[in-house]
């Protein structure tokens, strides 16, 4: 699996944000409950960057001009590995993304554990780990906001 961690500084608030998507379950056709980075499975004949480029074209219709390889994370169940690439200073607007393939919704957020409608957001394990590694969020034990979280990302 290859994933893109798209980051930007919000032009209005000045806060650092990450682009998260919710996918569609291919069996049920319903929106998945967890948020993650854009990306997907790599074909047997693809290297991680080639697979990521294909997935981005299919899912959002955009290809970043350059990315930085961040590393490979092996899922705890060891059934697969996630190759992560970072795209800093992303200028993509959510409304310009072609949501297709496995992507149902996309959102820029400075608060990864809270949706824009202020409901809790569940992150995949690898999304949580990479956001911690980037210093975007602190280490966490659960994919839920702390009880005293009031939605203000500056605190």
Overview of the structural elements:
- The protein is of the alpha+beta class and 155 residues long.
- The protein has helices spanning 48-59, 125-133; strands at residues 2-9, 16-24, 31-36, 38-40, 68-74, 81-87, 103-109, 122-123.
- Strands 1, 2, 3, 4, 5, 6, 7 and 8 form an 8-stranded mixed β-sheet that branches.
- The longest helix has 12 residues, at 48-59.
- It is globular and about 40 Å long.
- Residues 141-155 have low confidence and may be disordered.
In short, what is this structure?
This protein has 2 helices and 8 strands; from the N terminus they run ββββαββββα. By secondary structure, it is an alpha+beta fold. Strands 1, 2, 3, 4, 5, 6, 7 and 8 form an 8-stranded mixed sheet that branches.
Tell me the layout of helices and strands.
Elements: E1 2-9, E2 16-24, E3 31-36, E4 38-40, H1 48-59, E5 68-74, E6 81-87, E7 103-109, E8 122-123, H2 125-133
Parallel strand pairs: 1-6, 3-8
Antiparallel strand pairs: 1-2, 1-4, 2-3, 2-7, 5-6
């Amino acid at each position: 699996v290859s994933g893109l961690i798209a980051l930007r500084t919000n032009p209005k608030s000045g806060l650092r944000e990450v682009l998260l998507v919710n996918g569609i379950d291919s069996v049920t056709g319903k929106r998945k409950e967890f948020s993650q980075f854009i990306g997907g499975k790599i074909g047997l004949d693809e290297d991680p960057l080639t697979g990521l480029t294909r997935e981005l074209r299919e899912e959002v219709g955009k290809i970043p001009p350059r990315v930085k390889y961040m590393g490979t994370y092996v899922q705890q169940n060891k059934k697969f590995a996630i190759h992560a690439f970072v795209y800093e200073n992303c200028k993509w607007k959510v409304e310009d993304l072609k949501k297709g393939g496995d992507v149902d919704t996309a959102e820029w957020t400075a608060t990864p554990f809270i949706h824009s409608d202020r409901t809790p957001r569940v992150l995949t394990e690898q999304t949580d780990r990479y956001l911690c590694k980037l210093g975007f969020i602190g280490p966490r034990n659960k994919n839920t906001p702390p009880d005293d979280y009031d939605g203000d990302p500056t605190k």
